[in-house]
């Protein structure tokens, strides 16, 4: 079945370091991958979208990559801050069809001061 | 704030009862999607509405139904509530084109006892 997999283990890093989160897609060829941030009890907040023909996208301290060979997207937060602590979700969708985003379970990030 | 509002924010219902959750989409967005998110899980797609018609459905039984109104606001109805229906219910509005980001409301926390 189609699946988006994210590392279920929480990621703990020191403030100022770069956090790298992984999203793998299985039995699936998304045309778009999206990354969202979710705080406890709140809805996800959109961060970045990358298309399959884009290798890399940046927004301020955030960078996302899309590797169709490895079937993987990496999400980087540089110069991390305690305020970046949250769960980060990856979601994929196909071209020509926005009906269904397939979501990963999310990776919890804790940035320690 | 995303401009997507959901009501109520919290709700407690008894098994077997029926519930209606409401969502006002962001201005200009004609597509609304509903998701169920259990604790520690990623969002699970329930269905999507585009211009008042159901436009895709996930693996949820028929007792989950919905409506979209001419102003693009939406309702999610769940009949014959079961304990496993306890979850955070998220509404997301978007444009219908593929690869556009979804804007989520804060969610409705439903507890079935």
Chain-wise SSE layout:
The complex is a heterodimer of chains A (about 110) and B (about 110).
Chain A: E1 3-6, E2 11-14, E3 19-26, E4 32-38, E5 45-51, E6 56-59, E7 62-67, E8 72-77, E9 86-94, E10 97-103, E11 107-112
Parallel strand pairs in A: 2-11
Antiparallel strand pairs in A: 1-3, 3-8, 4-5, 4-9, 6-7, 7-8, 9-10, 9-11
Chain B: E1 5-7, E2 10-13, E3 19-24, E4 31-37, E5 44-50, E6 53-57, E7 64-68, E8 74-78, E9 87-94, E10 103-104, E11 108-112
Parallel strand pairs in B: 2-11
Antiparallel strand pairs in B: 1-3, 3-8, 4-5, 4-9, 5-6, 7-8, 9-10, 9-11
In sequence order, what are the helices and strands of chain B, one letter per element?
Answer: EEEEEEEEEEE
Radius of gyration of chain A: 13 Å
- Shape category of chain B: globular
Range of strand content of chain A: over 45%
What would you call the structural class of chain A? mainly beta
Considering DSSP H and I runs of 4 or more, what fraction of the residues of chain A is helical? under 10%
Name the chain pair whose interface involves the most residues: A-B, 27 and 33 residues
What characterizes the major β-sheet of chain B? Answer: 7 strands, mixed
Uncertain runs of chain B: none
Helix content of chain B: under 10%
The whole-angstrom Rg of chain B is 13 Å
Strand content of chain B: over 45%
Number of helices of chain A: 0
Multimeric status of the protein: heterodimer
N/C terminus separation of chain B: 31 Å
